[in-house]
Amino acid sequence: MKKCSVTFFLLLMVGCLSAQKIDHRLEQEIQEMVKGLNGDIGVYVKNLHTGKVATFNADTIFPTASMVKVTILMGIQDKIEKGELDYHQQLEYKDSLYYAGEDILGSFKNGEKIGLHKVLMLMLTTSDNTASLWLQSLAGNGIRINQILDSLGMVNTRVNSRTPGREANRQQYGWAQTTPREMGTLMEKIYNGEVISKKAGEKMIRLLGRNYNDEQAIAEIPPYIFVASKNGCVNASRSEILLVMAPHGPYIFSVETKNLKDQSWDNSNEAWMLTRKLSALCWNYFEPRSRWKPSL
User: Fold this and answer.
1) Which helix (H) or strand (E) is 213 found in, with range?
2) Are strands 227-234 and 176-178 parallel, antiparallel or unpaired?
3) Is there a smaller number of Cβ atoms within 10 Å at the N or the C end of the chain?
4) Left, alpha or beta for 57 (phi > 0: left; psi -120 to 50: alpha)?
5) First-residue to last-residue Cα distance in the chain
6) d(CA 121, CA 8)
């Protein structure tokens, strides 16, 4: 890319960011709440009805951990849209695909058949890593996924693992990297039908609404509210992205952490506790004293 083109793109990004309306009250409450965390945190919240945002370190790069699976889903959906894959096609599992862990797919026998749609379900619902790495390969691997991200204006969100030329980034951030703002923006673009197509976006949102891991940020949202989400965690990082279809208007909640001192894996983990508090703050801020429930 020519130097003048890069300069124009950066100026355009700065202009877009400055044009965003800031929710100063919510931003101040977020900044007060995150003080004292033993680690680094970034937060991006956007009310899609008003367009107002509240941020904290929203442009800092963090590891995605399993949030990378949103981008893998995007890559698979791109292949389906082009007719290179079929949502219901049968795949054959091979022992060479196995990734050590508690994955359901990893317990399959060599040669067993499974539908692509079920592999997607395992990746997004139970965060199955064997399924995820298989799908990353089917999507054209990290190179193709990163090309799509680049076309969407994502400059910091990248797949690093098993992606030639990204070895140094993998050492620093692991499987993939992003920022709270970019992950939130990607979810918003999917919701708006700006990723692949409107039909593809609707399918992705539907699939992201089936998260089994619902004890952190999602736990602070009433169970009768639709939430599309993906969370991720490794030893020193806990992160989550939510699209919450709140009664008074949908909002995006993106929180990412790194360099955490508390690396425990139960719900008392400091970052997870803070994530739940931040999620509750946003819900109660946008839905004050809400008693809305669906009629029976």
Assistant:
1) none
2) unpaired
3) C
4) left
5) 57
6) 40
Tell me how far apart the alpha carbons of residues 79 and 140 are, in angstroms, rounded to a whole number.
9
* Pairing status of strand 52-56 against strand 40-47: antiparallel
Cα angle 122, 123, 125; round to 5: 65
Q: Are 279 and 268 in contact (CB under 8 A)?
A: no
Which residue is associated with the tokens 């169970």?
Answer: 223
Distance (Å) of CA 286 to CA 14, 24, 269, 289 = 27, 14, 26, 10
**Cα–Cα dist 271/277, whole Å:** 10
Superfamily name and number for 22-286: DD-peptidase/beta-lactamase superfamily (3.40.710.10)
- The parts of the chain modelled with pLDDT lower than 70 are 1-19, 290-296
In this predicted model, what pLDDT tens digit does every residue of 3-31 receive, in sequence order? 555 555 455 555 555 467 999 999 999 99
Residues 6+ apart with CB under 8 A from 138: 76, 79, 85, 116
b/e per residue 60-72 (b: at least 16 CB within 10 A): ebbbbbbbbbbbb
Tell me the C-alpha distance between 49 and 235, whole Å. Answer: 36
Strand (E) or helix (H) holding 142: helix 141-151
